[in-house]
Specification:
- The protein is mainly α.
- 62% of the residues lie in helices and 0% in strands.
- The chain has helices at residues 15-30, 44-55, 62-76, 82-96, 98-101, 106-130, 143-159.
- InterPro entries: Cell_shape_determining_MreD, MreD_proteobac.
- Belongs to the MreD family.
- The chain crosses the membrane at residues 60-80, 101-123, 135-154.
- It is found in: Cell membrane.
- Keywords: Cell membrane, Cell shape, Membrane, Transmembrane, Transmembrane helix.
Amino acid sequence: MSLDRPKELLKPVKRRFIFLTFVLAVLIELVPLPHGSTRWLPDFIGLLILYWVINQPRRVSIGIAFLMGIVADVSTAGLFGQHALAYSITAFLAMSRQRQLVMFNLGQQALVVLGLMFTNQLIMVVVRMLTGSAFVGWSYFLPPLIGALLWPLLTKLMLVPYRQHSA
């Protein structure tokens, strides 16, 4: 699999497709898994926010990231506002360099996503510790690595419905 950006023109992205991807990400987060197996799963909502902020910044921005953070807080029954804060900050960081990020190939983007997802996890750890929780351990920072490894696959999958099919 080549890590280059696609060279062909793509069809416009529909808002309902963006909404559907977020619904699927929330549903994936809600799937009950055995205790301990979630330690390595990436934050799919956060990963999707980064994808859309980088590729469709006019449709998905900091406000949508904040709303999805509130949805993630409610769905995970976590500390209210921690996901919203983390997603908003990482969306802001991604949007501040969005024009550069779209010019990167998928390997370079994956490295940036690794840093942004690590920042996301770090913000959530700091918020939890400020509210009196104990440090969760270093394994908490494994999901950003998995998310960065999945970034090229996610990008390729998200582009499938929008490729021009020439017969």
